[in-house]
Structures
1.
Amino acid sequence: MTIIQSLPDSIMSALNLYGLKSDPTYMTAAIPLQKIRVGDIDIEYEVADYTDPWSDSEPETILFHHGFCRNMDFWRGWVPELARNYRVLRFNSRGCGGTTVPVPGEPYHADQLVGDSLGLMD
């Protein structure tokens, strides 16, 4: 099922009302996640920042770390609530989502996970 096929009828009607095509070729896919090299891995992440661009102060950043055996979508429901007032940074931890998978048998250490988070924040 494509993204456009899963839209509710009310949204499809609005697209047609305003002359927008409901053909999937006219719609773009979801925005791809970004990646950054941190230490020995490439970390997949997303930043949501819907704060007022004319504000004099830089917004505080909230970092969401999903924990073991999950991915960044675990926090998806919080993004709309928080991104209006904060910069929300979510990422896929080592071995999860599109982040580099360590070699088989390599143990995960808390120091590595903390280092990955700090490296991403830099």
Note: The CA atoms of residues 79 and 117 lie 18 Å apart.
2.
Amino acid sequence: MRPLPIVAIMYDFDRTLCTKDMQDYSFIPSLGMTEREFWDFTNEIWKREQMDSVLAYMYAMVKTSAERGIPLLREKLVSMGKNVEFFEGVEEWFDRINAFGAANGVQIEHYVISSGMKEIIEGTSISQSFRCIFACEFLYDENGGAVWPKTDVNYTNKTQFVYRINKGVLDISNDLDLNRSMPDARRQQARAVQQYDLYRRRSERRALHEDDEGIRRLFDRRLPEPRQQGRGPAPKGQGGLYLSCRLQRGNVA
């Protein structure tokens, strides 16, 4: 049987699927800090030390936790995912679009490419909807405490994960296959990658949740270019949903 064409949908997370930065729901309150205090502290480190902004917020998480004697444990971060709040319709979206794809002869795959925390995303109600989650992650010691950034997903290196999805090399430790020449027949060819800023176009987001015709419009038309958007006080990424049509063989009409 001929394989179905694959449509890979790649999502940012904070302010795209959930309503604000994921640290704001549980992590920052657990420190006894306000959102503004934490992100101002992060920005201060970022600018003073000329750091990568994502590494700056990860360092701020480690430092503020240590100063308060609060262990930064992986299991604790995962448990915080249950408090993440999503935009209306997000939790129902995946089953709806999967069914729509099946009815139209394509296989839908969902991926996250986010500057947020992988651990928190894993604890959310929608985590099982994704084939793979590419996001920031800590390395942990033998006691489960965070000691070092294991993965840093910033503005520019997000493109490497699109490339990984395109080639089907999802293990981020597998650079050998990622760099190996791959025949076009084996490559999961990307037909198009566009970004759709759900946070910006709220009326269209509502339309997507209200009827299947909205989903059809999402696939049938060229998606608008996103605007530049800051994050909370901390510039940790911009909201967006990325669509990539990948195929096993043949062309997608």
Note: The radius of gyration is 19 Å.
